[in-house]
Amino acid sequence: MAKVPYRCVECSSNAHELHRDYSNGILKITICDSCQKPVDKYIEYDPAIILIDAILCKTQAFRHIIFNTKINIHWKLCVFCLLCEAYLRWSQLQGSEHSSDPADIIRYTKEWDFYCMFGFAALELAVFLGGVVAFVWMVQSFLQSSVDLPMLVKALLLSSYGKLLLIPAVIWEHDYSPLCFSLIKLFVLTSNSQAVRVILNCRRRLSILAVCVGLLMETCAAVASQRLQWSVLDFLLSQ
Ligand SMILES: [Zn+2]
């Protein structure tokens, strides 16, 4: 069966088109058959408005971005966020040895322990994604429904854009309180939960549960990797 290309941002029903282009140059937004509202009102909106609605975690904005756009930057975004996270972890390790010279960022990338931090951050992200996907897979098996798992991973990566808030910490060093990092984490998890909710088209509680399962597994992986991390760093420092 051919895949329906679009979704209604209001009710998540399938749609074959977002607008109709009449021969005299007039465009008309398609009305959803199910809810009788425009299939995707955001095609007329400025990207800044869409971004604000996404920051406010509106499901309509999430549906527009995930289902009705060809946005394909999730892996680049993921690598960029991991680099920021790795740098923060690495700089926390360096402590008082850290220099304020921005040129040092280039030098830091030659450090093996920086790559180790990148590896551990990537591992924890993979465990988080694996936890959420496994939970969703079990739920869909139980409910005899079908979920596009690659689309779920893409939605989770895109909804982690809040990690870009780490960039100020990279640029202006890491003079941030743990509370600030906790708020960034909470925002990212809220967005992740909303992305799961949009993909599954389910109730809020189920999506929060899915993210909590992923977070629990990520925390376990972080604790386990913490010991490995110190062992690896001790080995590298002894070389
Ligand atoms: Zn609709």
UniProtKB/TrEMBL annotation:
Keywords: Endoplasmic reticulum, Lipid metabolism, Lipid transport, Membrane, Transmembrane, Transmembrane helix, Transport. It comes from the Eukaryota. GO terms for cellular component: cortical endoplasmic reticulum; endoplasmic reticulum membrane; Golgi apparatus. The chain crosses the membrane at residues 114-139, 151-172, 206-224. One of its GO terms (biological process) is regulation of plasma membrane sterol distribution. It holds the Pfam family Arv1. It is found in: Endoplasmic reticulum membrane. It is a multi-pass membrane protein. Coiled coil: none annotated. This is Protein ARV. It comes from Megalops atlanticus (Tarpon).
